Write a sequence for this structure.
């Protein structure tokens, strides 16, 4: 019995941010000394991000959001955590629903066929939560089993898929909908703290969803077969990637040690979880930042173009926490793949935690391959 991702959907807010504009806006905030200004310029310049999306229209020069971060002037106010979370409660449900509808449409699955729902988020919380609201907003059966993964961080989509995989193993007829939505920009603030400056330079808003099932009748067309999962805790990093709740929003600690730790551990992780790089045809790596991708590429001695899909998502969308790896997988599935191609999927979360999945592309073939090349590729 094989469990597959039948379709992946994505959604982003309406406001598109240009990296230089956000940098310039934050540079205008009061209280930044020359050192902070230099750090701000360096962090934004090194992020390898062109555009990001946000629910905060004022960050892009548009109409104020419900958070009222700005009154139209350049100086941003500092909302309380309660205000930020209230805005999450107001706008997150629509983003969850948009990504879910896209995934269901791509999978060819009706909403009333969903049997299990898993929601994922670490940028806000409320009850009844997004899982409850999705049942209502999508028209799911009121008997749909619901689960929520909260505050797991950037790696959380993979545990969400793993839970779906376990459910499908026990109930092959199940249809599991996994939906991740993150509104990281709600917690943006002006700061002279290097870690907060880095966070402001990379995090963004977005949502993504996947439909998972082991039902053979549904496994048609392009899909990703789930072959297995693994998780590892690094020997270091407990205090280098941290997500806490402060009085003025959620606070992200992301030190310069994070990419270095990734670089030191990724080879051992690849050997333990994938049997080494020779057993992998393509890599889907969570783009936590340019330096993280650079360290993975160097640590595994990958070709210069091996992480192109991850870099493209980072460049166009930034780091949307848990949703980001599904953006990468959607991009890969839509590109030139061949049937039987083996994918290694890796994401990094607080701890430092490494979450990984092995997948195989099915029902797809590159138009660039002739019949003989395709047959050889399928046997790899």
């Amino acid at each position: 019995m094989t469990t597959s991702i039948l379709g992946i959907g994505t959604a982003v807010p309406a406001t598109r941010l240009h990296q230089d504009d956000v940098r310039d806006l934050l540079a205008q905030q009061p209280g930044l000394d020359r050192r902070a200004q230099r750090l701000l310029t360096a962090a934004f310049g090194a992020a390898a991000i062109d555009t990001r999306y946000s629910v905060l229209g004022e960050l892009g020069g548009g109409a104020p959001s419900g958070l009222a971060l700005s009154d139209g002037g350049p100086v941003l106010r500092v909302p309380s955590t309660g205000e930020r979370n209230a805005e999450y409660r107001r706008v997150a449900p629509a983003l969850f629903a948009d990504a879910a509808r896209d995934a269901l449409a791509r999978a060819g699955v009706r909403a009333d066929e969903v049997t299990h729902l898993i929601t994922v988020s670490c940028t806000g919380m409320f009850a009844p939560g997004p899982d409850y609201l999705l049942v209502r907003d999508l028209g799911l059966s009121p008997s749909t089993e619901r689960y929520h993964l909260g505050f797991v961080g950037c790696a959380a989509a993979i545990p969400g898929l793993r839970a779906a995989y376990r459910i499908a193993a026990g109930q092959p007829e199940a249809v599991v909908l996994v939906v991740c939505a993150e509104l990281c920009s709600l917690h943006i603030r002006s700061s002279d703290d290097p870690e907060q400056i880095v966070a402001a330079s990379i995090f963004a808003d977005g949502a993504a969803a996947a439909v998972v099932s082991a039902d053979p009748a549904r496994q048609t067309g392009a899909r990703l077969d789930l072959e297995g999962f693994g998780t590892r805790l690094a020997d270091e990093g407990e205090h280098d990637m941290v997500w806490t709740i402060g009085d003025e929003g959620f606070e992200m600690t992301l030190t310069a040690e994070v990419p270095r730790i990734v670089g030191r551990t990724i080879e051992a992780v690849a050997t333990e979880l994938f049997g080494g790089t020779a057993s992998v045809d393509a890599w889907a790596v969570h783009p936590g930042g340019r330096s993280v991708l650079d360290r993975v590429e160097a640590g595994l001695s990958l070709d210069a173009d091996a992480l192109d899909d991850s870099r493209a998502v980072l460049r166009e969308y930034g780091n949307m926490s848990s949703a980001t790896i599904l953006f990468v997988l959607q991009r890969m599935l839509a590109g030139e793949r061949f049937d039987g191609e083996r994918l290694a999927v890796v994401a990094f979360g607080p701890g430092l935690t490494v979450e990984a999945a092995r997948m195989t592309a099915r029902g797809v073939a590159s138009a660039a391959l002739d019949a003989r090349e395709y047959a050889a590729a399928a046997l790899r």
